[in-house]
Amino acid sequence: MAASTTTLRYPSYNNNDLIGLIASLIPTPRCHFLMSGYTPLVLADTQVSAVRKTTVLDVMRRLTQTKNIMVSTSTRQGVYISMLNIISGADIDPTDVHKSLQRIREKKLVSFIPWGPASIQVALARKSPYVETAHKVSGFMLANHTSMSSLFERSLNQYDKIKKRNAFLDNYRKEPMFADGLEEFDDAREVVQTLVDEYKACERPDYASYGL
Questions:
Q1: Residue 93: its pLDDT value, please?
Q2: Is the per-residue pLDDT at 212 higher than 60?
Q3: Which chain positions lie within coiled-coil regions (predicted)?
Q4: Which of 40-54 are b and which e, b meaning 16 or more Cβ less than 10 Å from the residue's Cβ?
């Protein structure tokens, strides 16, 4: 949370509020579940980290790796809808940022949707003057990725197993609001399934006409 509000607390050139921060990451209303990533992770008490190099390129490259993403899904499957990197550090040269973006494109480290702009937004932020760190540069990522659908699919599969066995449902039937049946559960499942279908449709070139 501290990293995500860096450009608000230490004013930057393009973020004035939280809405402005995430608005460009959500092109369609349904697909608004963002994943986050951070590097390098350091134990506060020991200042120990497995990361040695923290150039702008190294930080931005590691932000694309699944092991640095704080969601239980893999970015090896699916595509990015949008991505924002907040790079924090002292005296960061914007030229390094442009060179890093070029290297990432050349190596094809990230895959974007075929129907929209394939660009990584980058915001530069100051380091906190109150927290000492062993690294010159750190990076935070907010991204909209179609692999988020796997989290909802996992929930649907678990729900289907429980519903098939009628497990835990007796407690609900005792409540007045479920006296007429448990159709509300099926309606909720349909909403989640629609969300999964929407994320999968985002991966297709014809997504702009999806649902019309």
A1: 87
A2: no
A3: none
A4: bebeeeeeeeebeeb
Q: What is the DSSP letter of 134?
A: S
Separation of alpha carbons 44 and 133, rounded Å = 9
CA distance 195 to 153: 10
Closest Cα to residue 136, out of 193, 55, 196? Answer: 55
Quickly list DSSP for 183-210: HHHHHHHHHHHHHHHHHHHTTSTTGGGT
Tokens 């109150």: give the residue.
130
The type of residue at 8 is: L
30 vs 94: CA distance, rounded Å: 34
Name every residue whose Cβ is closer than 8 Å to that of residue 99 and which is 6 or more positions away in sequence: 57
120-125 and 137-145 as β-strands: parallel, antiparallel, unpaired?
Answer: unpaired
Helix, strand, or coil (residue 162): helix
Q: Are 48 and 42 in contact (CB under 8 A)?
A: yes
Domains of the chain from N-terminus onward? 6-147 (3.30.1330.20), 151-209 (1.10.287.600)
Q: What's the chain's average pLDDT?
A: 86
For 163, half-sphere exposure in the C-beta direction (CA atoms, 13 angstrom radius) is 13
Residue 35's DSSP bridge partners are: 143
